[in-house]
Amino acid sequence: MSNQQGMDESFLDGDHAVFLEQLYSQYQQDPNSIEPQWQAYFQRLDSSPVTGMAAMGSRNGKVMEHRSEQLRVSRLINAYRYLGHFEADTNPLGDYAYKTSVPQLTLEHHELANIPLDTLFDPGSFNIAGQPTLGNILQALRETYVRAIGFEYMHILDIQEKRWLQKRIESDLGKPKLSHPQRRKILENLTAAEGFEQYLHRRYVGQKRFGLEGGESLIPLLQTLIHEGGQQGLQEIVIGMAHRGRLNVLTNVLCKPAGDLFHEFEGKIDESYTGDVKYHKGYSGDISTPGGPVHLVLAFNPSHLEIVSPVMEGSVRARQDRRQDKDGDQVLGISIHGDAAFAGQGVVMETFNMAQTRGYRTRGTIHIVINNQVGFTTSTVSDSRSTYYPTDVAKMINAPIFHVNGDDPEAVVYAAQVALEYRQVFQKDVVLDLVCYRRLGHNEADEPTMTQPVMYDIIRSLPTTRAKYALKLAEEGVVSAGGAKGLVDAYRTKLANGGITCCNSQTRTGLPLELLTHWKLYVGQPWRQEIDTTCSAERIHALTERWVSKIPQDFVVHPRVLKVLEARAAMGRGGQPADWGFGETLAYATLLEDGFDVRLSGQDCGRGTFSHRHSVLHHQKRREQWVPLQHTADFQAKFTVIDSVLSEEAVLAFEYGYATAEPETLVIWEAQFGDFVNGAQVVIDQFISSGEQKWQRLCGLVMFLPHGLEGQGPEHSSARLERFVQLAAQENMHICIPSTPAQVFHMLRRQMIRKYRKPLVVFTPKSLLRHPLAISELEEFINGKFEVVLDDVDITDVDAKEHVKRVIMCSGKVYYDLLEERRKNAITDTAIIRLEQLYPFPSQELVDVMEYYPNVEAAIWCQEEPVNQGAWNGIKHRFEAYDYTEVVCVSRPAMAAPAVGSLYMHQHQQQALVREALGLET
């Protein structure tokens, strides 16, 4: 601490009040017992400041006589900053919940009750207008911290952020400064929100709509974020939300024509897709703001509540990357949650955990919790969570939280203004807890008094938010009662006409041409397309040489990794066969040179779980990294590789969101082990497999799922292939199990070069990454393509094929086990055919190969998974239409777990099924 008069005395804000009071007491007893700089400070405090204070307050009151009382005032200020939100008037239901008496907010608690209220004190960093008397300080504290907004931010570790919030909030006593036109606009928004729900309630009696009644302030809140965001330079806003209030937001914020919504209620939409219920659908449009048009997107979302949060974040990141918006100044994400779901679902925590990480940062999301104070249909707060607030999980990332009374729309608007400004300044998440209620229960057919009689006695006695605000404005002369009624009539007329009810919609796009995504190029395209995925020898040589030559001379590479890179350079020259890591890396390098960005994320994916990839090199002496694929060509697209947070659900959802917004980027998520995808099954079921059929949302996401039974136990064997073949329908995805480096090379290039965007699920190997037979010659990269069916490599001439009596069809690792056992036993009458693509099933290609074997007597599908798992049950019907002999399955017996835990038992089973498939004694 400096001894200079101009020293920073920000410690007087109360954060250190207890320490200062103890130190001052020690100083009074023995000045020499404390540090000299503190002695100087307290001496100055006891001398000149008193004189100045006395001069200032001589006409208005007494001057404090004991400096310890100053410290108590600092503690009082501190208490309001820390605890004021507990006593704030944030609940429209009164004392039903969220309000408690806090002794620390009283003068008595701080031994200040006997101090005259006109005594002057130094308020420190507390912003107060006028004389800083004790009475004025207390009044300003209560106006700021215990009215309609409970500001919860003192848990933030960054002192600069706290100072900013204190200055922003305290300078205007936590209240907005709104003009009459602005207040009338709030009333207009509330009128639209209420009028929309009432109209639908009368017109479509008994139909579910998950209305916004009781939470209508969400509409002016969103309008504030959008219009003031536009003023501050935002150009795109992506919103993710569950179903409550969704139809209202679509109509009154995103300006979806009311007639389109009415048609959905009446079931008149003729879609070639399966479609979805109306309160799951998304929309996009362009909104006029004072700063120019803002492109709004409401993400499509199933009923799985919070899962849309990371999907929305991925879409935001894709748009920021496209714009090179490194500070998030142009693209904002808004995530709207329910209170029970926000507290109850783990994906919320997972998404927060990604918020400031390199690979998933979106420079701050504004979270809005529609706090109904009851979970789903009947759950009480005590059953919904173990925390005081549903928003307490946000403290894990030091996010400020503003609890605001939903029945005070001006307070809601103010909270939104502060939240937006904070996000723009600090590029961090912020939470708005909109404390409201549900007027009609969980849905319009629900009878809430069966389970919440006390709450709904209160609710049914309350006037609506719009009615209360209209009365307030009428009493203050801002709008007449007739004017308020005119707004109701005018909105009802617009709604009945079926047009756009928003007055701020744009007909032209707000996005420049170069920022548009041209999804129409990929609609209705066949999966079989004649494309060239080959690469010339000269190009391969040039690219692979750079993987080593471009490493800085002083960059110390791990010796084993350097050998891998040097071997890949030799593979690129044709000096040795290519392994899996070469084929995969070469695919990325060529796509980057072709202008496609590549984004690869997952646990350990930089190195590769099985140490095969090494896309990130680590300096062995310093904390430095080198990414060869970022330096693979003179002119190339962007390569991003991320060792993800330890999450499957949120990370996969994020990558799905990214891929749905960016068709020209190869987006890959890799599971550490294929089994781990189990933790993200909701993303697969409700987005990846069905997003196109429900919402017409194309997506080119690639999933790498390491798969293969190798004696590592039930939790490190199976990527649950059976689940994917069960979900496969309507050409919704590709399911591939490539078995050679050249196959994975052509497969990845096909994924981007084709004008076709569907999810690609790849069952990648583990042991095959280094298997001596799982190799490719350079010629296979120079010429060739991705073969959906691979014929037998040993039986090539016509006579030998006619001699074949048994055909084994298989996919994945078991092929090499079969091949080695056949060679070992010198079997010549059995062919082994690989199905490299299981969906869309390559029927014609398989028939073409089978025609080479006219004398087949036995056809077998061989899989190493148990018979009730793996591909068999999902593809066996594909063989029924063939004229040749019936296909039978050879596999492990049915099992509850994917694999045994004993290596000995695994080897015994594997040997038995391989020999059985080959017709050998077991």
From TrEMBL:
<dbReference type="InterPro" id="IPR031717">
    <property type="entry name" value="ODO-1/KGD_C"/>
</dbReference>
<dbReference type="InterPro" id="IPR032106">
    <property type="entry name" value="2-oxogl_dehyd_N"/>
</dbReference>
<comment type="function">
    <text>E1 component of the 2-oxoglutarate dehydrogenase (OGDH) complex which catalyzes the decarboxylation of 2-oxoglutarate, the first step in the conversion of 2-oxoglutarate to succinyl-CoA and CO(2).</text>
</comment>
<dbReference type="Pfam" id="PF16078">
    <property type="entry name" value="2-oxogl_dehyd_N"/>
</dbReference>
<dbReference type="InterPro" id="IPR042179">
    <property type="entry name" value="KGD_C_sf"/>
</dbReference>
<comment type="similarity">
    <text>Belongs to the alpha-ketoglutarate dehydrogenase family.</text>
</comment>
<dbReference type="GO" id="GO:0030976">
    <property type="term" value="F:thiamine pyrophosphate binding"/>
</dbReference>
<dbReference type="InterPro" id="IPR011603">
    <property type="entry name" value="2oxoglutarate_DH_E1"/>
</dbReference>
<dbReference type="InterPro" id="IPR005475">
    <property type="entry name" value="Transketolase-like_Pyr-bd"/>
</dbReference>
<dbReference type="Pfam" id="PF02779">
    <property type="entry name" value="Transket_pyr"/>
</dbReference>
<keyword id="KW-0560">Oxidoreductase</keyword>
<comment type="subunit">
    <text>Homodimer. Part of the 2-oxoglutarate dehydrogenase (OGDH) complex composed of E1 (2-oxoglutarate dehydrogenase), E2 (dihydrolipoamide succinyltransferase) and E3 (dihydrolipoamide dehydrogenase); the complex contains multiple copies of the three enzymatic components (E1, E2 and E3).</text>
</comment>
<keyword id="KW-0786">Thiamine pyrophosphate</keyword>
<keyword id="KW-0324">Glycolysis</keyword>
<protein>
    <recommendedName>
        <fullName>2-oxoglutarate dehydrogenase E1 component</fullName>
        <ecNumber>1.2.4.2</ecNumber>
    </recommendedName>
</protein>
<dbReference type="GO" id="GO:0005829">
    <property type="term" value="C:cytosol"/>
</dbReference>
<feature type="domain" description="Transketolase-like pyrimidine-binding">
    <location>
        <begin position="578"/>
        <end position="771"/>
    </location>
</feature>
<dbReference type="Pfam" id="PF16870">
    <property type="entry name" value="OxoGdeHyase_C"/>
</dbReference>
<dbReference type="Pfam" id="PF00676">
    <property type="entry name" value="E1_dh"/>
</dbReference>
<dbReference type="GO" id="GO:0004591">
    <property type="term" value="F:oxoglutarate dehydrogenase (succinyl-transferring) activity"/>
</dbReference>
<dbReference type="GO" id="GO:0006096">
    <property type="term" value="P:glycolytic process"/>
</dbReference>
<dbReference type="GO" id="GO:0006099">
    <property type="term" value="P:tricarboxylic acid cycle"/>
</dbReference>
<dbReference type="GO" id="GO:0045252">
    <property type="term" value="C:oxoglutarate dehydrogenase complex"/>
</dbReference>
<dbReference type="InterPro" id="IPR029061">
    <property type="entry name" value="THDP-binding"/>
</dbReference>
<dbReference type="InterPro" id="IPR001017">
    <property type="entry name" value="DH_E1"/>
</dbReference>
